[in-house]
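Workshop exercise sheet. Pairs work together: one partner reads the sequence aloud, the other fills in the structure field after running the prediction. Swap roles for the next sheet.
Pair: D.N. / O.F.
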Amino acid sequence: MSMDHKTPEDFQKEAVELHTEYMPRKDALSPRERLGIPPQEMPAQDPVARRANFNEVATGYSAEQAQVEALRCLQCKNRPCVEGCPVRIDIPGFIQAIADGDYAQAIAIIKRNSMLPAICGRVCPQETQCQEPCTVGKALKDSSKGVAIGRLERFVADWEREQNRIKPPEVAPETGKKVAVIGSGPASLTVAADVRRAGHTVTLMEAFHKPGGVLVYGIPEFRLPKSIVQVEIDTLKAMGVEIRTNFVVGRSRQLKDLLEQDGYDAVFVGTGAGLPKFMNIDGENLIGVFSANEYLTRVNLMKAYDRDNADTPVMRSHKVAVLGGGNVAMDAARTAVRLGAEKVTIVYRRTEKEMPARVEEVEHAKEEGIEFRLLQNAKRILGTDDGRVRSLECLLYELGEPDSSGRRRPVEIPDSEFELDVDTVIVAIGNDSNPLIQQTTPEMEFNRWGNIVVNEDGATSMQRVFAGGDIVLGAATVILAMGQGRQAAAAINRMLATA
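Structure field:
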């Protein structure tokens, strides 16, 4: 673990000095001077301390840090960052407002296109979306040094919430039209808000006992506090959106029933990718083997980490192996650390360069003492006589030619088997689309992976039914799901306006 961790006080001292130097002449700074302003790092909890708590790791920019970071923006005329944003936020506009100290204007600009800035500012992969084409990063020949767009988005969203300035968007006069939104993840929340704004009656139908989808069951508290998600849910309620929990479309009601019997004029399906994948190796049925989906749902949604008060148990593990290299693998590994595991190891069959996880999440995992075993993969899980995990047999790998993903294909090295001493294995190699809608809706077209087929507006093969998010994309990002939600909502509103 890192021994040179800077405290928030260290960052603040540096930011105040830079703020004093640059702010008095902020409007006269040349591009060269802006490029010379150092990127503002994100303050975070001490790595040793945070291993024992579920509090948010990143503590957020101070006002001085935010303004200094905003001054780094060159206000490019070609605005490449906007092209990299799936919902096309006016990024230079909101950043300039931060530099001017007008935080209310900054959040207002963001909310023209995004209802979830506090969430996106925390969990979206800006480094591969809006920040990747940033001119500042290109000029410095390091995309990681581009303007920290997500951190600035989080700053103004948190400012709005902490100042109690969140107001529900205005809702148009009632149209008499009814829309059912199935699921309550990012795509569905976006659709519910945009369709309700147009004056239509909206009912959000969630299978779990709490709304929020992957935002509440999949992403840990230390990355995304659930109180922030609840604010967004409360905003929808204040707009007049009805939320039905414990309502499983495909079981409680079939999709066609909503249209033919319940009087809905349109339906949006955003049921996500909640079916965990397994490796189909020997030993996956042993006690102590979990899908990351189940493991994280127990902890995040059911609060199993609060052992004295939660009704849902979670296994007390000592040595944990997590299979996979994405954000979910990082979330599971870092959760296991916080639940008291003495040793947590991530096993990934490629190198760190090919890992799909965010660089920031990998770095946080390393800081928290998680071991990375790269170019290795599980061959089978070995058990004790009473059916519990005893060890994980792995193989060594090397990289071959690129595969369909563009990453070099991992190739196993024959006769390289070895064992890891573990009592828990968490499989985090991805999820497939929720199969329930497909099983109960033969009228709808799906592709061979079980994803709903839609056109550019999110319309499915069923009349008046739209879809978006992971049920269409496969497992993707929050902001991509939101982008699909916005397109579908616009199409629904156009359809109902002419109906």
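Discussion prompt: The domain at 276-431 is CATH 3.50.50.60 (FAD/NAD(P)-binding domain). What would you look at next?
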